[in-house]
Amino acid sequence: MLTPALFNDTLFDDLFDLPFGDIDRRLYGKNAARIMKTDIREHDDSFEAEIDLPGFTKEQIGLELKDGCLTVTASKGHDTEKKDKEGRIIRQERYSGEMQRSFYVGEDITEEDIKAKFTDGVLSITVPKKEPKAQLPDKKRIAIE
Q: What is the dihedral of CA 14, 18, 21, 26, to 10 degrees?
């Protein structure tokens, strides 16, 4: 359905809104490009990631470390009763649902090493740098007589 440009991101949204489009657009709608924006900085002894999660609370965010992969999950739903009291929604741009993003941090990192803080809609994660344990090759010695 064509709606005034006031209700679309661009004038051509409806023309190019094809059903076989990008998977992110199908999952997250027209705001897919703005979900879980992340900045990663490298310091001398650690890496710091800052992830934008506006509108989420600390309780709606989860961190899991498995096989050297850190997964950030955020989920929230709609309150249908609240919508009825406030009126009929004709356009909704705020995200509701579940999203996740994963980062490889290394096999030597443990849950205790990772520090996370959530302030003003930004999740800050600090992961220390660890040198991988050196794997010494097994040398078999042959005795010389």
A: 70
Stated pTM of the model: 0.64
Beta strands in the chain (DSSP E): 38-42, 46-52, 61-66, 69-76, 97-104, 115-119, 122-128
Structure tokens at 89: 């929604």
pLDDT tens for each residue of 95-132: 678 888 999 998 889 999 999 999 999 999 999 998 76
Region at 69 (left for phi over 0; alpha for psi -120 to 50; beta for the rest): beta
Provide the 3-class DSSP secondary structure of residue 49: strand
Separation CA 113–CA 94 (nearest Å): 33
- Residue ranges with strand state E in 8-119: 38-42, 46-52, 61-66, 69-76, 97-104, 115-119
CATH number of 35-128: 2.60.40.790
Q: Which two tokens stand for residue 128?
A: 């220390």
d(CA 124, CA 47): 10
With CA atoms as reference, report the closest residue to 75 among 52, 51, 41, 100: 100
Residue pointed to by tokens 């999660």: 53
Percentage of the chain modeled with pLDDT above 70 = 66
